[in-house]
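Journal club side-thread
Mid-discussion, someone asked how the predicted structure for our own chain would compare to the paper's figures. Pasting it here so we can look after the session.
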Amino acid sequence: MGASHAIGTCKSAEPGCSAASVDQPRRAQAGTELKVSGAAAVAGGIIVPNKAAIEQESGLTLNLTVNGDANGLKDLYAGKTDVAMIAAPMQITADAINKVNPGSISIGGFEMAPVGTISIRFVVNSGNPVKSLSEAQLKDIFSGKVTSWKEVGGAGQPIMVVAEAAGFGTCSNVVASLLGGTDITDKARTVQVFQSR
């Protein structure tokens, strides 16, 4: 089972201006640094492979921080970055942030610029006799309703769910698209990827 979602960057409606600094906009000039932070999927799939060309064409120097969708959007809102990279729909990312800290961010005035799509694929260990799962089975596994491979046609072994940490695009997409807003089981082993380039 897989899902595809648009990935992109977002910025405030006024060029060079974050929602938190409308009175004193920061405008990017040729030869200056452009701070970009957020999703690893956008950074690794689009920005890093094309960084030299982007810098050459724009005259800007990219300062790239890979810290997840939520952190990128929070950085943009706080005026700490010029562009946020997000791999989940902007509203889903904002809702996830506000779920943890109600009212902490508003995306009013932000613009989304889709730059590609991502596909989410679910995998099992190659030694597992379960070779396919229905969407309903995946939902039950990720929500914690199903906890044994025996319940989905496998051996009587516990299922170890491994998921991206909350606040990252893949996790946000799984929660929104597959689980209909229900959180991934709290028994899941979470992984985070933080890189700066």
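Post-session note: The longest strand covers residues 110-121.
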